[in-house]
Amino acid sequence: MGRPMQFEAGEAVNRAMDLFWRQGYAGTTPQELATELGIGKGSLYNTFESKHALFLRALRRYSEARVEYLTGMFVAPGPIRPRLKQALMALAGVGEHQRGCVMVNAAAELGAADAEVNQIANEMFSQIEAVFRQAIVQGQASGEFRTGQVPETVASQLVASVIGLSVLVKTGGPAERFSNIIDGLIDGL
Predict the structure, then answer these.
(1) CB neighbourhood size of 38 (10 A)
(2) CB atoms inside a 10 Å sphere around CB 49
(3) Helix (H) or strand (E) holding 67
(4) Looking at residue 166, which CATH number applies to its domain?
(5) Which end of the chain is flanked by fewer CB atoms within 10 Å, N or C?
């Protein structure tokens, strides 16, 4: 009979996600993961099967957290415009860090060669697009946004914009620059 697990797997996935976010998939070794999680490499493999399997779990966790955050943000009553700005700022990482979006980073690093990463990324971007679409519909109904625009198209454009912004944030620059870009996007609605 093996020893009982001495760590909480959910917290380990969160810590692994942070390490992958800082260093990328290829830049993170199994030994670094084990060290970050405070476990042996054997426990890493026994619990998560492989570095790649842990990476996929981390991406799914990130996706769930981002979509939950956005969904909760737009359920609350009140004006849509400031919440949309807050959502775009948070998704791009403006003012929080200069690591960009972990999903954008993963897709850029592995997307061409890893169908599972692509699938997780596409699912997350589609879910974010659906939340944005509903926010646009709400904003049009309240008179905050023009009604002549197709919500599905605007939502797709916002997702593409936030992906590009997350790359710009990763390259550095003042938060004010990114805030102004987001203001311009929202003003166009």
Answers:
(1) 11
(2) 12
(3) helix 51-75
(4) 1.10.357.10
(5) N
Determine the length of the chain.
189
Does residue 38 fall inside a structural domain? no
Domain of residue 166, residue span? 56-187
**15: its two tokens:** 């810590």
Q: How many domains is the chain partitioned into structurally? A: 1
Q: Could you count the other beta carbons within 10 Å of the beta carbon of residue 47? A: 16
**C-alpha dihedral sign at 180, 71, 157, 136:** negative
Q: 76 lies in a domain? A: yes
Position 28 in a domain: no
Q: Give CA–CA dist 189/186, Å, rounded.
A: 5
Residue 56 scores a pLDDT above 50: yes
- Compute and round to an integer the Cα radius of gyration of the chain: 19
Higher pLDDT, 46 or 135: 135
User: What average pLDDT score do residues 151-167 get?
Assistant: 95
User: How far is 140 from 151, CA to CA, in rounded Å?
Assistant: 9
CB neighbourhood size of 148 (10 A): 6
**pLDDT exceeds cutoff 90 at 93:** no
Indicate whether 90 belongs to any domain.
Answer: yes
Q: Is the pLDDT of residue 14 over 50?
A: yes
Instruction: Name the percent of the chain lying above pLDDT 90.
Output: 75
More confident residue, 40 or 160: 160
